[in-house]
Amino acid sequence: MRQAGAYSGILSGGGVSGRTGPHLLPLARIKKIMKKSSVDVKMISGEAPLVFSKACELFIEELTKRSWNTTIQGKRRTLHKEDVASAVATTDVFDFLIDLVHPNASGDVDLDEEHVLEKK
Amino acid sequence: MVEEQDKLLPVANVGRIMKKILPPTAKISKEAKETIQECASEFISFVTGEASDKCHKENRKTVNGDDICWALGSLGFDDYSQAIARYLHKHREFERVRASTAAASSSAALELEASDC
């Protein structure tokens, strides 16, 4: 039974929504990643992975768009890892990714204080 | 090896989202896709950690959608936070309608059964 209306517009995949509807990212995998993020994470509500599927989509879109800007500036048509690194370096909210894209970077900012994974 | 992949979103799904936002003639290197795949997982961990901290401080055991929405705002992702708030609202509304429709149709079915007797 198709449920049209308010909900169908949200999912880019189209079609019927539902618990396991046509989301762009697998909810079970998202839940696994959430659980592994910290020992403090004990219980996760059913809607949390759903919320993340949307948030991740927005995140990937933004990171991709910004990376592509660098690609274009270099007059290229292939998006490379360096373009992603550049997007991370020039976007404040992506600071938590600096170590991930630039393993050898020794910045002025001590990320350990902010990095929630470093909780003891 | 399998364990490592469990910590990442599937690269095919990540690639699909990337393609959606880029011009049709754009190309994406495998390394770039994998890098963004890793970044997305890190994003989930980062935001979950913040949300989980909040729950811990408030003596709550379950991380819910509102906590994630709050964490996004707290970490500087204001646009995402607003979009998620709208998404959550619609989702909850949808679930409410679905639940009441299911309840209504099952009670209607019971009535039909009863009238057949």
Number of helices in the DSSP assignment of chain B: 5
The helix/strand order of chain A is: HEHEHH
Counting helices, strands and paired strands, the structural category of chain B is: mainly alpha
Helix content of chain A: 40-55%
The total count of strands of chain B amounts to: 2
Task: Name the helicity range of chain B.
Answer: over 70%
Strand content of chain A: under 5%
N→C terminal distance of chain A: 49 Å
* Count of helical stretches of chain A: 4
Count of domain modules of chain B? 1
In CATH, what is the homologous superfamily of chain B? Histone, subunit A
The oligomeric state of the chains shown is: heterodimer
Instruction: List segments of chain A where confidence is low: pLDDT < 50 over at least 5 consecutive residues.
Output: 6-21
Task: Assign the structural class of chain A, choosing from mainly alpha, mainly beta, alpha/beta, alpha+beta, or little secondary structure.
Answer: mainly alpha
For the largest interface, the chains and their residue counts are: A-B, 62 and 64 residues
Morphology call of chain A: elongated
Largest beta-sheet details of chain B = none
Low-confidence stretches of chain B: none
Mean pLDDT figure of chain B? 91
What's the overall average pLDDT of chain A, rounded? 80
CATH class of chain B, named Mainly Alpha
Keywords:
heterodimer; A: 120 residues; mainly alpha; 2 strands; B: mainly alpha; Histone, subunit A; 5 helices; 3% strand
Outline the structure in words.
The complex is a heterodimer of chains A (120) and B (117). By secondary structure, chain A is mainly alpha-helical. Chain B has 117 residues and is mostly helical. Chain B has a single domain, classed as Orthogonal Bundle (Histone, subunit A), CATH 1.10.20. Chain B is extended and about 65 Å long. Classes of the chains: A mainly alpha (120), B mainly alpha (117).
